[in-house]
Amino acid sequence: MACAGITREGKPCAADVQRESEYCVFHDPAKMETVLEARRAGGKVGKDRYLPDGAPLVVVRTANDVLTLVELAANSVLLGALDSRRGSCIAQLASVALKAIEVGELQERIEKMEEQVSR
Questions:
Q1: Residues 25/38, Cβ–Cβ less than 8 Å
Q2: Measuring CA to CA, how many Å separate 23 from each of 2, 12, 40, 45?
Q3: pTM of the complete model
């Protein structure tokens, strides 16, 4: 069943109602204050949370460098100093860096083997 609430555009709300209510969570008069608090808090979460001041920039050239970066990011997320979305982004970039390192190492090994074969 659709919500009895009206959207900002003046149209009927199409969201599903909650149990034992004729409103969705956003239009329920009994939950208005909770919804407003969540909206206010939602605008503050994750803002201005970067690597902590003084955190070293990590040069990523080896698998150990990648591990150092991931450890730094994970600890910063756990301590609340880094937003989890940024932590996820760092993890994705670390994964790409690790793959590039692996490919580079394989390329070097192949080149060495090709040199030995051509002798």
A1: no
A2: 8, 11, 21, 27
A3: 0.52
